Amino acid sequence: MLSMKNISKVYQTEKVQTHALRDFNLEVKEGEFIAVTGPSGSGKTTFLNIAGMLEPFSGGEFMLDNVNVGSLSDNERADLRNQKIGFIFQGFNLIPDLSLYENIEVPLRYRGIKAAERKLRIEECLEKVGLASRAKHLPQQLSGGQQQRVAIARALAGKPRFLLADEPTGNLDSLMARQVMELLENINSEGSTIIMVTHDQELARRAPRNIQVVDGQLADFTLYQNKSSDSVAERVQQSMAEV
Amino acid sequence: MLEIKPIFNSLLRSKAGAIMLLIQIAITTAIVSNAAFIAKDRIDFLSQETGYPEDEIFSFTTMTFDKELDIVQKFEETETMLRNIPGVKNASLFNAVPLSGSGSAGGLSLKPATEEGPDVRAAYFLADENALDTLGVNLLEGRNFRPDEVIMSASRDVFPEVTIITQALGLELFPTGDALGKTVYFGVAPLKIIGIAEPMKSAWLKDSRPDNVSIIPFVGASIFQKIIVRTEPEQRTAIMRQIEDLMIQDHNKRVIIGLQGMDEDKRDNNASDILMLRMLITLIIVLVLITGLGIFGLTVFNINKRTKQIGTRRALGARKSAIVRYFLIENAIICVFGLVLGSIAAIFMGQLLLENYSMPALDTFYVLMTALFVFIASLLSVVMPATKAANISPSIATRSI
């Protein structure tokens, strides 16, 4: 359902070209839970941004549910993001002036869902993350873990096919991190496909599939148990040593 | 898909900036609508129909210092000389120049001054039978002065027996509209109304009765004499340039002073109104600019403060147009409240001006037009920063700050 072939991303400054991703290949099947790890600056976030259509890529082919993302206009990408993808950010990214209810409502409004249905979905999602009683609170009245649960509720409300999580537990203490991870696992068990970028090896190991981004290229543990490329394997070991 | 409710709620939760802007919009609306109304009132005043072809007329004063001279006879010759200048339509001797701010006025009565009777304020011009033609004013009824009705005298022992008045003056003296042929009294002197003239203004546009004008056929030939000349409009400047030489050629013991076109006279006389008008227009422009800049600045500030939020909204599926719309709606909400407050303040301020400075009552049309104008100006001020905001990359959402 998500397929990246030879994706590359080049950041061009005045004199320097930086290759954030090169020859990046990935196939994601429906219902997978993938943890993406890798050293800082390896291209994890760039991969996630491209997977979430938050930024354009420089070359290669990216198919999302049989749609060729490279050929879409800005508006079409925004609509596709809205319909297919739920984002969970490290910094939660809740809108501070909006109540929890209104925060979850944001993507639903962009999709043009009617008020009555919005209400149903929001209440259902708040219920799912255990914050139904606090719909009218503002984000700042909540703990970090609670805020991240609201952000997850917001990501779920649109019933997306993909959840993209960028260090979802990065700003949380270990107890809260575990709660959030459990929530993600539940969501995955209900059928949602999750791609999660994380630094936390322990959390990553809980995911059924682990991939590692090194120097802008992919090292897929599940794949490379069978057929491995030496150069990539070496680089992985090297980088593991660094971490 | 309008997001009025969440935007409104969000504004309520961070009020400070919005309230400042709201107050600024309100003050601008209140002041600009009153200033625009007063400015329009001044423009109407300055551009009102005076009844004169101002660009064809000029006037000057001669001061004669030849004690031997028969002034009456000399001025008749001078008038003829002036009329014979190519391009001159007519010339006449006057005691005062219309619109110049200096002239004579008194009461015209239905009874001689010795008896009590209704008395109407009127400006009067003492001039000869060429007066109306020189001023470019036509008769509506009756006839012009005959030359034998014009008295030229250094004393007022002999006074004319006829007058021509404006229709406005006629109606005030005789509300039934039958002034022609009636007699009115200038002091004790009876004057028969032989003609009713088209509207023309007195020496003072701000007089309580600027339309009440009477012309009396009397030339009090004196060493100071005002002369009014009407020319072809395109030749006035050239003729004015040579008039002093021609007058001295005509008689060399005289001095020419105060040579000026009627439009210039009017401008000088109303300089304070023109200044006021300019100041009002400046005030309006400055206020609208300040408000526009304020809105622009606040939007830029809001955008910088909300970069991450905008990126997040884009990540959650907002199209660029939705981001622009967000800021437009937010601004429109603030604007509507500011405009309502400002309109109330405007009407209240108009009331104060009416009571304390005898300004005319503020027309609500001006408040509505100003509100509309401020609304449009404010939306325009938002468009640019909002478009900039819409171009914020959604990838900013994943960058930690």
Rounded to the nearest angstrom, the distance between the terminal CA atoms of chain A is 32 Å
Integer count of domains of chain A: 1
* Rg result of chain B: 32 Å
Number of helices of chain A: 9
The CATH topology of chain A comes to Rossmann fold
The biggest sheet of chain A amounts to: 6 strands, mixed
The mean pLDDT of chain B is 91
Structural summary, described in words:
The complex is a heterodimer of chains A (243) and B (401). Chain A is built from nine helices and ten strands. Chain A has 243 residues and is of the alpha/beta class. Chain A has a six-stranded mixed beta sheet with strand order 6-7-8-3-9-10, with helices on both faces. In chain A, a hairpin with a 2-residue loop joins β9 and β10 (217-220). The longest helix of chain A has 16 residues, at 174-189. The relative contact order of chain A is 0.18. With 401 residues, chain B is α+β, with helices and mostly antiparallel strands. Chain B has two domains: 4-47 and 271-398, no CATH class; 66-252, no CATH class. Helices cover 50% and strands 19% of the residues of chain B. In chain B, a hairpin with a 2-residue loop joins β8 and β9. In chain B, α1 crosses α10, α2 (15-46) runs antiparallel to α8 and α2 (15-46) packs across α11 (364-390). Chains A and B meet through α1, α2 and α3 of A and α1, α9 and α10 of B.
Question: Topology of this structure?
Answer:
The complex is a heterodimer of chains A (243) and B (401).
Chain A: E1 2-12, E2 17-28, E3 33-37, H1 44-51, E4 59-64, E5 67-68, H2 74-84, E6 85-88, H3 100-111, H4 115-128, H5 144-157, E7 162-166, H6 174-189, E8 193-197, H7 201-206, E9 209-214, E10 217-220, H8 221-224, H9 230-242
Parallel strand pairs in A: 3-8, 3-9, 6-7, 7-8
Antiparallel strand pairs in A: 1-2, 1-4, 4-5, 9-10
Chain B: H1 4-13, H2 15-46, E1 57-64, H3 71-83, E2 88-94, E3 104-109, E4 119-126, H4 131-135, E5 139-142, E6 151-152, E7 162-166, H5 167-173, E8 183-186, E9 189-197, E10 213-216, E11 218-219, E12 224-231, H6 236-250, E13 254-261, H7 262-269, H8 271-305, H9 307-315, H10 320-357, H11 364-390
Parallel strand pairs in B: 4-10, 6-11, 7-9
Antiparallel strand pairs in B: 1-12, 1-13, 2-12, 3-4, 3-8, 5-9, 7-10, 8-9
